[in-house]
Automatic annotation (TrEMBL):
Organism name: Cercophora newfieldiana
Keyword Transcription: no
Name listed for the protein in its UniProt record: Clustered mitochondria protein homolog
Lineage, uppermost ranks: Eukaryota, Fungi, Dikarya, Ascomycota, Pezizomycotina
Subcellular locations according to the entry: Cytoplasm
PANTHER family named in the record: CLUSTERED MITOCHONDRIA PROTEIN HOMOLOG (PTHR12601:SF6), EUKARYOTIC TRANSLATION INITIATION FACTOR 3 SUBUNIT EIF-3 (PTHR12601)
Amino acid sequence: MATETAVPTSDASSGNPAPKAPVVEGAPQVEQNGTAEAVEDGAEQADDAPFSLTVALPHDNQSFELPVSPLEQIHEIRQSIIEHPIALQYSCFRLEHKGERVNDYTQVSDIEGLGAGSELHLVEEPYTEKEARIHVVRIRELVGASGDRTDTVHGVLAGASIYDDVTVAEPKEGEASSEVQEYNFEAEPALTSLIPKETEPAPKAVKSISLSPWNPPPAHLRQKGHLLYLVVSTNEGEQWQITAHVGGFFVNKCSNAKFDPFRNTTARGYSEHSLFTLLHKISPSFATTFAEFQEFTSRRDPLATFQVGNTIPSAPWLVPSTASPLCNHISDPTRSQETYLLAGAENTDSLRDWNEEFQSARELPRDTIQDRVFRERLISKLFADYNDAAARGAVLVARGEIAPLNPTEGRDAQIFVYNNVFFSFGADGVGTFTSEGGDEAARVATGKDVLGVKLVNQLDIDGLYTPGTVVVDYLGKRIVGQSIVPGIFKQPEPGENQIHYGAVDGKDQVAADERFAASFEKLATALRVKKHPVWDKESKRFDLEASVEMKGLLGTDGRKYVLDLYRITPLDIAWMEESGPEGSEYPHRMTVLRPELVEALGKQKAREFINAELARRAKIADEKKAEKAVEATKEEDAKPADAENSEDAEDEKAEDKPDAEKTVQEDRIDMANFKFALNPDVFSGQVPQTEEEKAELAKDEQDVRDACTYLRDALKALVKDLRESDISFPMDGRSLTKLLHRRGINMRYLGLLAKLSEEEGSRLECFGHLCVQEMISRSFKHIAARYLKYLPLPLTSSCFSHLLNCLLGFGLNPKPVAEIDETMKALFDDADLSFEKVTPESLRKDIERETVQRYRFTLAENWWGQIRHTQLLREVSLKLGLQIQVKNFLFAGEPEAPAAKDQVATESKKSKKKKARDGSPASIASSSTVPHTFTPEDIVNVVPTIKDSAPRSALAEEALEGGRLSIYQGQRKLGEDLLLESLSLHEQIYGLVHPEVGQMYHSLSQMYYQLDQKEAAVELARKAAIVSERTVGLDSAETVLNYLNLSLFLHQRGDSQLALAYAKHALDLWKIIYGPDHPDTITTMNNYAVMLQSIKAYHESRRWFEESLRVCELVFGRKSVNSATLLFQLAQALALDQDAKQAVDRMRESYNIFKDILGPEDKNTKEAEHWLEQLLHNAVSIAKQAKDQARGARSGFPFATRLGLRDATNASNGLAGKPEVPLTDSRSLDELVHFIEGTEKKKKTSGGGKKRTGRANPKRRGSTAV
C-alpha cells in the first residue's frame, strides 16, 4: 500500500549527524548470548518497572492509587497528586512515609521500604506568603475565575488549536454517500477557517477572586501570621472578605470601609486550609458550577488546553476582530495584581542569575540515564524560561521603556540590562564591522552567532561554557539578549587583556592563552575547523585552534567562556568573486558557508577515504592471490597427489579460525588517518610571512574553494532531486528555508535556484515560484525595517498598513495614502515619517534593487501582477510578526485590476469579479474617501520573532535513532521498546506541548503505521496535528502534513468519513499557504478520491481524479507515464460513475501513452490493453442492451472476466510496477456491470474546469494513492 508521499521524514534527516544508540551496538549479542542476556535485561526491567502507591489524604479518610516509576523523584509525585481529581485543593503539603518526611528531590528507588502497595501520607503544611500567592493563582485558574491576559511576547490567541473545530464539522455517522458535498476546486478557501470557532463563555464557579484593598497586612498582623487579604464575589451576589493565614484561609470581619481582618466568630465564620474547600462552604452553587466548568473544559482535547510551558507558543498571523468574543477584554481586577501574585512585592521571585543557572545545570552529573534525563529536562526548562524573559526584555528595549547604561552614546551603541539579561542592538554602533559592511554585517553576525552558540551547546563539551543567547527582531530592530558573563564588564588591569584567546581590539592584537587550547581543540575537531596560524598587526604569529574572531574569556567565576561564534566556517569566496547583474554588489562580507555544508562535505570526504582504502586493499588482495596461485602451482608439481590432499585438509582446519579473526581485523578501517578540516580565516586579510606559510595558506584557500564548488554541486543536486521527485516540494517560505539549510545552502542562493528552476520548465515551476516569492518577502522585510527602526510604536500600524497597500493593495487603490492620526503626528513631531512618501512604484523599485543586491536575481517585468496576494501577505506577516484582523481582503476593485493577468494565481476573471462583488463594506472601511485594502485598524498586534540557542535532547534522539536502527535490522521488539522509551524521554524533557515532541509524534505515527499498528498511528498523528498547530502554526507545512497523515491512517482504520474531513481541511490549508496546483497535491487528491470510492460516492470521486489529472498534466505534461497512470485510474472511476464512453476514451489514451513510452511488452501497457478490451466489451453490451430495452426486450448478456475490478489504489500500484496489495474493498467486474446496467445516465464531460497554470512536480505523486 503506497503511503502519502508528501510526508517527509522526521528531524533525523536535518543534516546533523545522527547519534548512535549504545543499546543498538549490543543488540546482535542478544541472539548470540541468548539466555544470559535475556535474564540481565529482565532483571533490569524488573528493577525499573512501575508500581502503584497509595496516597492517603488528610480528610474524610480519602485515598487513591498512584502509579509511579522507581526513577521518578518525589517532586514529580507531588505534581501528580496536585493534578489528581480528588486532590485538586492541595498545594501546600509534605509527603510522609512511615511517619518520616520525604525529601522532595529524592528518587523513589532511594527511599527505604517504598515499593508496591506502600502508603504515602499527605500532610498539610503552614503557608508562607509565596505559597499563599501560588495557591491563590492556582485556585483562580482551577475554578475559571481568571480573565484574559494581555501578553506582549505571545500575542493574541497564542498557542490556539482548531483541531476540535475540524472534528465538529464532520459528517455524522450514517449519512448516505449521496450527501457528500461537492467540492469547488476553483474557490479560494475562506481565511476564517484559520480562526477558532466562537463558543459560549465558560461557566464560572465564582465571579471573581482578587486581592483586597486592605492588602498587604500591616507589620503587627504579619507577626500574627497574616499573609494576604482577599475579596471573593460568589455567583449568589455575595462578597466575602477572606484572610490568608499561615494556617489556611478564613472569612474575616472586614468590609470595604472597615478593617477587621480577624476570624468571624459567627456561624458563617468558615475556616479551611485550602481556599478551594472554603469556596465550597461559602457558595451553595459552587459545587454545581464547578462541575459544569469541568465538563465545559473537557469538551476540548486535553492537548489543546494544556499550558505551553517549555516553548514560546505560535502566534497566528490572522486573528479575529477585536469585537469577537475570542478577543473580548473582560473586566478583571486581579489582572493587574498578577505580577505581585506571581513575583512578590519586591519582584524577587522572577529575578534570576541566568548565567549561574545555565553553567550550574551544565555541570550536573550525567553518569546514569536518570542523571541525563534530570539534567536535560532542567536545561530545556531553563532555556525556555530564559528565552521568554529575554524576549520580554527585548520588546521593552525596542519600545524605549528601559533606560540605557550609556545614554550619551548613539542609539545603536546603547546597551541595557534588564532582569539580569544584557541587551544590545544588532547594529554596528561602535564600528567593529566597518570593513565587513557596517550595520548589515553586524545584523547578520548576530544571527550567525546565535546559530554558533546553539551548535556549541549541542556538542556539550566539558569545560567550555557559553552565555545564554537570544536574538529578537521586533519593529525593525534586531536586539541581542545575553546572560551576563562574570567579569565581562570588568576593566582589565594595565598590560592585561580582557580576552584570553582570539582577537583583541579588532585583529590588531591576538591572545593565545594555553589554558583554552585543549577545550578549543575539542570544539574545533567537532566543527571541522583546522588549527592554523594568524598574525597580529606586528606580524607576530599565533597558532589558533579556532577562528581569530572566536574569543575565549576566563570569567571571574573561573569558567572558560567562548564568545563571538559568527565565524566558525570559512567565507563563501566563490560568491564574493562572482559578478552578478548591474547594481548587485552584496551589502556585506559576512557570507560564510553553513555548518551543515561543511559537515556534509566532511562525510563525503570520509566516504572517498574509505573507498580509496577499500580499493587499495582489493588491489593488495588480488596481488596476494596471484602470488599464491603461482606458489600453489609450483608446490603441486613437487608433491604426490595423496599427500597434497591430506595436508590441505589439515591446513584448512588449523588455519580456519585464525584466518577468520585476521579477516575481521583487516576489514576494519582505521579512521584515525582521515583528516578533514577547513581554515575559517582564509580570505580575511591574514598576511603570511614565510614561503612555507604562504604555501600552507594557499592550500587552505584551495580547500575552501573546493567547499564552494561542493556548494554549487549541492544546488544542482537539490534541483535534480526535485525534478526526479526524490524529495517533497516545500509549501511555503519556512519549509523552503528548512530544506535549503538542511542541505547547507544559504538563502542568498535563492536567485540562482530560481534561474535553475526556470530552465527545468513546468516540472519545477512550483519551486521557482516559491523562490521568487521568498525573495520578494525578504526584500520587503528589509525595506520595512528601515522605515520602522526609529518609528514610535503608536505610528507603526500606519506604516505597516501603508506599506502593505503599496505592495498588495494597488489593484484596489493605485495611489494609496498613509493614514496617520493627526494628534499622534503632532505628539511625535520629530518622528521620521518618510514611509508616507512611499508609492507602489517606488516600493517596487526598492524591492527590485534589494533582490538584485541580495540574491543577484532580476525580477520579471510586471512581477507585481504575478504575485499571489494572500500567500505573500502571509509570508510578510510571519517575517515581521504581524497579527492582522481577518476579513475579506480586497486586492482588486469592482472593475478588473489593470495589472497583467496573473499567471501564478490562476483565478478566472469570473471568480475575481465575484470576489469583488462579495466584499462587504466593512472590509474596505477607511477614513479616506478612496478605499484601501489595509487600514491601521487591521494591524492588531506585532509579536517578536525569536532565534534561540536551546540545544535538542541528545538522550531522546539516541533512543529514537536506536529504535529506527533496530527495526531496520529486523529486531522489531527491541525497536518498539526503544521508540516508546524515546517518546517518554521527549515528553519528560520537553513537556507535552513542544515542537520537538510534535515532531516525535509525527515520526512515531509513521513508524507505527508501517508496523501495522493503526490505532497507535491514529492517536499519535492526532497528537502531532494539535501540537504542531499550537507550537509551529495553525497553517504551517508541518500541520498540513500531520493532518494528511491523520486522514490516511483513519481511512486505513476504516473511518473514511472522518478521514475525508481532515484531508479537506489539510487541502484548504494548503491552498491558503501555497495556492492551487501544488505538485504534491496530486497524491493527496488521489487519496481523497479513493476514500470517496470507499463510501460509494462515485461521482464526486471521479471529479477528484479529474482534478488530480489536471494538475499532473500541468506538471508532467499529458504524454507522461504519470498522466497515463492517472488516466488509468480515472477510467475506472468513470466506469463506476456509469460513464462507459468516457471510460473507454480515457483507458485508450492511457494505453497509447504506455505503449509509446514503455513499449507494447511492458506489463503496464498489457494491463491497460486488457482493461481497454473489457471496457469496450462493456460499452458495446450496454449499447446493445439499451437498444434492446428501447424495443421492449429485457435480455441480459453473459460477461466473462479474467481480471476483477480492483480499487483504484491497487490498480495504480500495479501500473507503477509495484507489488499489488490486496484490499478488503476490492470490487469485481460484475459489480461494475451492475452499476453500469442499473440506470442510464447522460454522458459526463471530464473537463474539470478551466486549465490553470500549475506548479511543479511529483514522480511518485501521480502514480500512488492511499
